[in-house]
Amino acid sequence: MKENLSVAQLKNKCVDLKKNAISMIYKAQSGHPGGSLSIADFVTACYWHAMDVDPQNPRWVDRDRFVLSKGHTCPAQYAALAMKGYFDMSVLDTLRQEGSILQGHPDMKKCPGIDISTGSLGQGFACAAGMALAAKLDGKDYNVFCAIGDGECNEGEIWEAAGTAYKYKLDNLIAFIDWNNLQLDGTCEEIMPPVDLAKKFEAFGFQVWQIDGNDMEQVVKALDEAMAAKNGLPKCIVGKTVKGKGVSYMENQCGWHGVAPNAEQYRQAMEELDGQYVSC
Amino acid sequence: MNFDKKIATRDGFGEEIVALGKENRNILVVDADIGKSCKTGAFRKELPEQYLNVGIAEQNCAGVAAGLATCGKIPFIVTYAAFGSMRMVEMIRQEICYPHLNVKIACSHGGVTPANDGASHQAIEDMGILRTIPNMTVIMPADYYSARKLVRAAAEFDGPVYLRFTRDAIPVIYDEEDSFVIGKAKQLRQGKDVAIIANGDTVRLALQAAEELAAQGIEARVLDMHTVKPLDTEAVMDCIENIGRIVTVEDHNILNGLGSAVCELAAEAGKGKVRRLGIQDQFGMSAPYERLLAMNGVTVENIVDSAKALLK
Hints:
The complex is a heterodimer of chains A (280) and B (312).
Chain A lengths: L6 H22 L4 H6 L1 H11 L14 E4 L5 H11 L39 H15 L5 E6 L6 H12 L5 E7 L8 H4 L5 H7 L3 E6 L3 H13 L6 E6 L22 H12 L6
Helix pairs in contact in A: 1-3, 1-4, 1-10, 3-4, 3-9, 5-6
Chain B lengths: L5 E2 L1 H15 L3 E5 L3 H4 L2 H6 L4 E3 L4 H13 L3 E7 H7 L1 H9 L6 E5 L17 H6 L5 E3 L4 H13 L4 E4 L5 E2 L14 E4 L4 E5 L3 H14 L4 E5 L2 E3 L3 H10 L2 E9 L4 H12 L3 E7 L9 H7 L4 H12 L1
Parallel strand pairs in B: 2-3, 2-4, 4-5, 5-7, 6-7, 10-11, 10-13, 13-14
Antiparallel strand pairs in B: 1-8, 6-12, 9-11
Helix pairs in contact in B: 1-8, 4-6, 9-13, 10-11
């Protein structure tokens, strides 16, 4: 049940996804817009190009898995899940509300399509490695896609998990580093210099792609190559991205990490995103 | 009482996990480079395809186990109690307990049993810490046979379980035929004057103390409270209601462990006097196991004295 959209169609799907993500944050007046926008291209490419999933059967045992290790950017994944039909679009209006399946950070027990609960940074990647390892133990061929933040790579557990991925030859594990260069308190260089994340993952034994993570064509190409390379090496796509990508006043602004737009800002965001559809 | 036969409960785990792994191929061991010491050597040799070792990386160990559990595996994380309860505690909370995944954390070196290793390896806080995490079950078997039975019960139970074993050899107090149910205390001695509620190797001390008390005309009920959470509230309430005098004994900090759990019930009931024996909220040191217990008043003599003090 893989979908096969053209790059132009994926770009438009990504605009839809961004609008839904910003809308739910606006309605909740709470959430993390900046990282939800920088990761949007990868999330879109996973759900509408790379992943074999069945929204009617979210726990299908042979499905591809998606782990949002940077769990605070769940509006992007929630939007994807609703658009895919895991639940009704109207549920998006309940983000962060009491009783909602859309918790502030993803909850696998409440929300269909969430493969593991995340939210505490650094932990999802190890879980993703565990899932990929289970596939290897069972002789199954599903892939595990994992979105990791650049700031999240401060966490030692990321590198512990990288060791496990290499040791157990998890070539079905595809990490994406959302290198938007902004953390909560400042730039990556200010907070904890990442040096060269691509070189780091290479040194840990990964097959690495360095791309513009907000260029859909490059994202799709890297994913295709990563999925095709069954060579025993875990995969890492290091995507240079822009935090807040697509909404001018949010782009590269540290202040838009965890703040909701007001009515005027929301109107402007929708207007700008509406102008980003391409002709197919 | 003949307590001459001594076996570490980690050995009970090491033997039972092999039997379980052969019966259910979804059972995995996930080691963090102290497998030999935690007695997974036989499992590694006999069931290599179910054996994983993620190195000295406990946080990752918990995450990998969680990921495996989402795919239908039953991973047993194996490490020392100090690391299995503290180095990986937030991963246990976030990735195992919160999603209620079927992961077991099987830890050797519980309490002060890693005696000569010193304070760094003596886990005196572990059961208290894990007791406060929702969805977690916390167990400390009293001897080799109960360890085997409770490891099996944990494997058959669907959900997170923390199991705590001893490094040092401790007396065997049960027979192969004894049975154990998670969350149900095992009453080892009838008594109407005082109740002694213990777990782990201190159950043996409680039995010895009950013998001494009997010689002095005092009848002590002895309970093996192997499951600290969920606590057998029925058994504890019966002690509170019908005896009213309780001594708790544990190889754990007196804060937040078995004694605290019993006190919580007594306080809410508004009756029952409790004396807590255990590690006196202080770090240990390199010393013989029995000496470390004695330094903290975890002795037969002190159990007897505490029981008598309650009767005054």
